[in-house]
Amino acid sequence: MKNLILIFFLTLIFSCNQHKSTVETSNLPELTESTNQETETTEKIFITMERSPCYGQCATYKIKIYNTGKVEYEGIKFAKKIGAYTKILNQNQLTEIKNQIEFIKLFEMKDKYDSNISDIPSTLVLVIYKGKKKIILDRFGAPNELKQFEKLIDYFVIDDKLIKAEDKN
């Protein structure tokens, strides 16, 4: 009789465990090819550009552009817009920036254009594009192509389409 009760309980426990695992897996979403693939729109930093202060009234601000077109702007001092702002660049603007990166051969430029002059602002540009990363300090003597690239970033970002960001407090 003890053996019969033992077999009954073991059968009961086994069947409950089997039912439990069936129920647990049936609640999982069905895996398809699309859920296994990483989306191409994963947001990543594409470009950052920071303009530093000087002893005068130099515009000081930071710009972040993501591969999705999202822009974060922070005007710090003497900038056209002070505070945190955001906007979205369109695909044509992103394409133009990418074309300029290639046209001016940004990844072949020096990492630093500098001088011992103390009262000049600097621009720090970081570009992550096609698996490459380039950081350039532009303080003095940078090629005109780099200066024009920086102006292009300013042109696309600093305009009336910037939207004041919500306070994060």
What is this structure's SSE topology?
Elements: H1 2-26, H2 33-36, E1 45-51, E2 60-66, E3 70-77, E4 83-88, H3 91-103, E5 112-113, E6 123-129, E7 132-138, H4 144-157, E8 163-164
Parallel strand pairs: 5-7
Antiparallel strand pairs: 1-2, 1-6, 2-3, 3-4, 4-8, 6-7
Helix pairs in contact: 3-4
Report on the architecture of this protein.
With 169 residues, the protein is α+β, with helices and mostly antiparallel strands. It has 2 domains: 2-28; 45-164, Mago nashi (Mago nashi protein). 33% of the residues lie in helices and 27% in strands. It is built from 4 helices and 8 strands. Strands 5-7-6-1-2-3-4-8 form an 8-stranded mixed sheet, covered by helices on one side. Helix 3 runs antiparallel to helix 4. It starts with a helix and ends in a 5-residue tail after the last strand. The relative contact order is 0.15. The model is unreliable at 1-39 (pLDDT under 50).
Number of DSSP strands?
A: 8
The strand line-up of the biggest sheet is: 5-7-6-1-2-3-4-8
CATH topology of the largest domain: Mago nashi protein
Compressed to H and E, one letter per element, the order equals: HHEEEEHEEEHE
Work out the radius of gyration.
28 Å
Within CATH, the superfamily of the largest domain carries the name Mago nashi
CATH architecture of the largest domain: 2-Layer Sandwich
Mean pLDDT: 82
Shape: globular
Number of domains: 2
* CATH C-level category of the largest domain: Alpha Beta
Strand residues, percent = 25-35%
* Largest sheet data: 8 strands, mixed
Helix amount, in percent? 25-40%
Number of helices: 4
Alpha-beta content class: alpha+beta
